[in-house]
Amino acid sequence: MAAILLNVTFIICFLLSVYFFSRRRKKAGITGMKSALTSVCFFLIAIINFSANLFDFLGIVSW
After folding, report:
1. What is the reported pTM?
2. pLDDT of 39-60, one tens digit each?
3. Alpha carbon distance 40, 24 (integer Å)
4. How far apart are CA 36 and CA 38, in angstroms?
5. Which of 25, 29, 37, 58 has the greatest number of beta carbons closer than 10 A?
6. Residue 7 in contact with residue 54, Cβ under 8 Å?
7. Looking at residue 32, what DSSP letter applies?
């Protein structure tokens, strides 16, 4: 039960953060991928950690 709640909370927060990130960039008039690269990398880290948790791939933590 707690795992399902954690997954749903993560998905909602992740989608909201991507939405606000893109909206803030559009509002500021910033274009291009180079300036967004750091944020995209952090979003990818979050997705990888979420999928590792979801599929029980703990990686180096399980060693």
Report:
1. 0.80
2. 999 999 999 889 888 888 876 6
3. 14
4. 6
5. 25
6. yes
7. -
